[in-house]
Design a protein that fits this description.
- Pfam families: DUF6002.
- By secondary structure, the chain is of the alpha/beta class.
- It is built from 15 helices and 15 strands.
- A hairpin with a 6-residue loop joins strand 10 and strand 11.
- Helix 8 crosses helix 10 and helix 9 packs across helix 10.
- About 50% of the residues are buried.
Length: about 450
Amino acid sequence: MLTTATVPVTRNLIVDYYEVIAAAVDRLGAGPGGPAGTAAFAPGFDLPALTDEVRQFFAAATATWRELGAHGGHGVQFMDLTGNPGTHTTKTFPSMLIVARAVEHIRRTGESICIFTPTSANKGIALRDAVGRAIAAKLVTPEQLRVVVLAPGSTRHKFRRDPLSADAALRAANPLLRFAGEEPEGVKALGRAFVDAYAQEAYDKHGTALWFSLALPNYLVADAARAAFELDAAPAIAAAPRWHAHAVSSAFGLLGYNLGRDVLEDSGRADGSPRPGFLLVQHLGTPDMVLNLRHGSFSRDRLPAYRRDAATGLWAQDADPHFPAVTADPGEVLDPTFYTHQPVTSPAMNDLIARHGGDGITVSRHECVARYPQLRDWLRGTLCELPADPSDLREWSIVMALTGVLNAIDRGLVPAGREIVVHGSGSYRDDDYAVCEPDAEVSTVEEIAAAVLGGR
């Protein structure tokens, strides 16, 4: 077990890697969408110059690299992406870049923008935080930039009071909408349908360009900075090849990291060896990427058969080490953050794992709670320190990822000699925030239009 990290290293993943982000944009060939007033509108990827005001806006985009310890002969490193107290998740980084692009577009064209995003929770929380920060830094006025978030009722407990909810005028201009439908993932189709139907009217009657911001390149270019951060903080060495582990719904973060590796190799800053493998960690509610990786199918028919223990009420299986050995429910939703079924990113991740190594594993709350004392010790004194009582945890991403790593090691899924890098993508607790109630319940595009455009 070898490692190059010694003491924690902190960087600003946007300011310190502005040129890496720009190179990632170029490598993707990413550019603007349609013109303002069309459903395909999206600003270009040009970012504002790093003035004092822009640096102030980006100040919360920090990440810290540290060693956590070792398990079963494998060193465990931790890329903590939760440094922004306004979000406690990795969605800070793409959200700030989305807002920065909007700022640059507004400055160049004079057009006002309303960002619209469907979300399980964390993307929306981070976009609200970023818009609030842009207004506070005086990069834009409240009239020039707005954000509308559409989220399912299952994540109601995750949304927090923030500067956009504290002021009556800002709250009215930046509504938090709660989807009343039964399927949480329905927010995506409904949000897309609203922008398709009302983009022209929003521009013609209200002078606002609607931007449907849920697009993969918006996230990949931000997450590319993770690879540059690794190179600065703790570059991999040949004697200790790595696996990168991440709790995933669609694996945007790992795909972005891989894009960053491509950029670094193109520029000669990294030599292409060793490339890490990837460990996908999911829950039983949406194990789709693990199923697809292991079986080439999203069908839940490929899940192992669970047996119920009448004495404990728990379900158990020992046929497949890639799925929980014990769970309270074979369909358990451990964290509703992870709500995507049949993600279109699965083939790309499968290809990376086929080329560079890796695996997938699914965890249960029962397993997470069993590992909780060790994880709490590992994270003590960090920005994502765990509460004493796991029932006070409101975001389980980091606990899921770490539990998946420990289970994978114990079950022999991780090859000997591999060091593990855990992407700490999110963790927050009950006492981190006060819950923000939604501004409206919606289930149709007309109801969204009334909440977003009515009275304007």
